[in-house]
Amino acid sequence: MNGATPMTLPDDQPTQLLSVLRADDFTVVDGVAQGDAMTFADELVMDDVYQIKVGSERVRIAVSQTANGLTLDSQTPTGHAGNLVHLDSAVTLMSPDGTTFEALVMVEVEDDAVADIYLLPFAPLAQKIDYRLVGIDRDTAASRFAEVACVSFTRGTHIAMASGAQVPIENLKIGDKVLTRDDGPKEVRWVGSSTVRAVGAFAPIVIRKGVLHNENDLVLSPDHRIFIYQRQDTVGAGRAELLVKVSHLVNGTTVFQQDGGFVEYFQLLFDDHQIIYAEGIAAESLLIDTRTRNALPSDVATDHAPRQHNEFEVTRELLGGENAAKILRKASRS
């Protein structure tokens, strides 16, 4: 996927919560820079070996896009709200068994000086394991960051067309008319695809057949949101319409994260952000915003105007734990 040109930002930008390691908790244990913490690309040394400090834990930061760039949000418990965050580089680490792990180096800036450095791994890293630095890429950090936020369906997912036909997403073409919840038949504007390792932030979520009245298993990217219409307000949201991230529904049995191997993801784009039907479940299409824009080809990357359904998103806390999928199924049953 290619990068895109800047765009005019709407006033209300989405906040993205990230689980990161502080650079000081990921240090060189063998190599040229022994004893040094993870740092920005210009100071990294290939083949240095890193470990996570024993007893250290990930911290959470909240970022949003402003006219000045990626910025720490007031919701963040770490760092200082308003500080800029620079996506410095994408690095590749290798464990002793040859497994590779991708991560982003993020630099917090305050008054034109480095305030902190974070490592955002795309898959879990373990303590007491050596990770050798085998790749440094200064050009792809923004696009890799964007890809995490791109909501995606997996190969074989059946999409409801305007004609009533159920078509596997990989067979859809530009101009095909898909049934949308809010606007009826809408033409597909772009279909993207990518194959990635199914680990960490890229490991898909599986909703088993029938859990939410779905016709077959539905397999989606973790941040994908599905639409639920409650016939009774079981979760106490104060409204009937909900947007729920599928990662909030994981219970380890009927809804689970499928880690390992590779996954082929497809992104479906319309002129506006839409709610469509996948295996009988109402689910969102790709939303173009400041997070996802850099993952799209420049000839399709414009912005989506705010839609009312984006206000329907609910938190994990409101859903109440392991029985969330069961509760939502009951609430949506006619």
The number of helices is 3
Structural class: mainly beta
Neighbour order of strands in the largest sheet: 2-3-9-6-7-8-1-4-5
Q: Which residues sit in consecutive blocks of at least 5 with pLDDT less than 50?
A: 1-13
Order of helix and strand elements from N to C terminus: EEEEEEEEEHEEEEEEEEEEEEEEHH
**N-to-C CA distance:** 42 Å
User: What gyration radius follows from the Cα positions, in whole Å?
Assistant: 21 Å
**Main beta sheet: strand number and arrangement?**
9 strands, antiparallel
Average pLDDT, to the nearest integer?
87
Q: What is the 3D form?
A: globular
Proportion of residues in extended strands: 35-45%
Helix content: under 10%
Total beta strand runs: 23
Question: What does this entry look like structurally?
Answer:
The protein is mainly β and 334 residues long. It is built from 3 helices and 23 strands. The strands form 7 sheets. A 9-stranded antiparallel sheet has the order 2-3-9-6-7-8-1-4-5, with helices on one face. It is globular and about 60 Å long. It starts with 15 loop residues before the first strand and ends with a helix.
